[in-house]
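Entry for the shared binder. Reason: the reviewer on the internal report wants the predicted structure included alongside the sequence.
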Amino acid sequence: MDIIAFELRKLGLKEKEVAIYLAALELGYSPVQLIARQAGVSRPTAYEIINELIKKGLMRESKRKGLTKGEKNLFSAESPDKLLGLLRVQKREIEEKEREFIRIISALRAKYYLAGQSEIRSFEGAEGLKVLLDDFSQSQTEEIFVLTDSSSSLKDWQHRYPEIKKRLGSLIVKERTKKNFKGTLIIYDKIIYLPASDSPQALLITNKDIAELLKILV
C-alpha cells in the first residue's frame, strides 16, 4: 500500500473505497466498468462502492450522450479538497462522541460517589497546583461555584473555563467575593480550597454530596 492509500485509509475509507476513489481520480469521467477494471474490483462491487463514495461527497455521477446509444452514466472523483471536509465531519463526530462519553462518565461517577467513596488530598508548590488545574479542567459538571476574598487572583482558573465549556457544551460559572472569607473555594464535582498563603498550597476534596451541599450554601 502506497503512502497516499495509507493516508486515505486513516480517514476511515475502506481498502476498496480507496482503490475506486484513486482510479476515478486518475480517469476522470468514466463508465463504471472502466473504473472497476482500473481499481481491480468487479463491476457490481464498483457500483456499490461508488454509491457509498457519492454519499460521502467524494464522487459524482453525470449522464452524457453516447455515440451509439442514449445517455450513459459516467462517474468521477470529486476534488481532493473534499477530503478535508470529510476530516472535519469526522472531527465533529469525535467531539460529539467525547461529549456523550463525558456525560456517561458523569453518571458513572455519581454511582461511584454514592457508594460512599470520598478522598481528601493536599497539594503544595507550583507543580501541585498544576495537577489541580488539570483536574479542574476535567470537571464533569456544567455548574461551577467560586467563593474568594478580594485579594485572591482567579486568573489561572478562569483560563480553564473555555476548555471546560467546549468539552461539555455549556458552562455556568458563579463567582462571589467575600471580604471576611480567607482564601478561595472552588466547587465543581469536587471541591478545591486554596488558603490565603504566601506559599502555593491547596486541598482537594472528592465527595459529590458535599460539593452539592456547598453549592446550595455558598
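Summary line for the report: The mean pLDDT is 82.
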